[in-house]
Structure formats: structure tokens, C-alpha cells
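User: I'll paste a sequence; please echo it back and then give the predicted structure.

Assistant: Echoing your sequence first, then the prediction.
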Amino acid sequence: MQLESCYSAYHGWLAHWLQRRLGNACDAADLMQDTFARLLAGAPAQPQTPALRAPRAYLATIAKHLLINHLRRQSLEQAWLEVLAALPEQHVPSAQQQAEMLQSLQAVDAMLDGLKPKVRAVFIMAQIEGHTYADIAVRLGIGERSVKRYMAEALTECVLLA
């Protein structure tokens, strides 16, 4: 199936699929366009590759990943707005600083999402929850040496992010 005919055949279905999950036609339209942009960016050279032999399933998979990222970003933004609302007026950062901080939070969130589950768990327990390496090792049922290795891996990602 050619990309043009794929778009014609499935854009309405995909928009409806996304709108049901989001409850918002504008966000659904944006994610639908992002989905087709991803399809176009990774378009296979041969029209009979598995991606285009089952276009609905392939589009749903791409859209699902984009939807998860969108919802995670929304959740992060909401949490950020709640923190800002709780600040005394004299401590509220400027609009520019708020945007930069939110961008940094989103970058850290994306970095954490890219980590292996145990690495992410160790990093969060150590850096956010304040547990010692020994405590983390006991809680996760791993050796302290593994905790150190996982932290090194997570911190390497943080450095690369910076």
C-alpha cells in the first residue's frame, strides 16, 4: 500500500481512535499527523513490507507510543503547574525560567524513560527518595555492587543529557 493511499484510507479511523483516547480533537489531530510523519520518515523502500501490509496495526502501534509520550508530558506539565501554584508569589520564576525548567524536566523524564527498569529504579530510589545504596540493594534484592553499576549507568545518561 502506498503512503498516499494509506493516509486516505486510515486518517479518519486513526483520528477517531486517538480522539476516543484523548477526549480532545485538537490533540488527536496533532498526534495523528505526528503518526503519519513518523510513518513517512521511516517509510520502507518496498511497499510490501510488514508495516504496510498491516497498516492499521502499524499505525496503531506508532500512535500508541506517541500517545503514551503525550500523556506523560501532560502529567509532568500538570505536576509542574501544581508546584508553581504552591509557591509564594515572590518565589515564582519568570515565564522564561518556567519554560526552561519545564523543558529540563521533560528531558530528564525522557532520559529516565530510556533507562532499563532496574537502572531507573535505582536512580529514583537514590536521587529522589534518598535511600542508601545498601538499602536499595536490600529493597531490590540485588548486590550493592549492582546498585553502584546501575547508578553509574544512570549518571552517565545524565551527563550525556547535560
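The mean pLDDT is 87. The helical segments are 3-22, 25-41, 50-53, 55-86, 95-114, 117-128, 133-140, 144-161.
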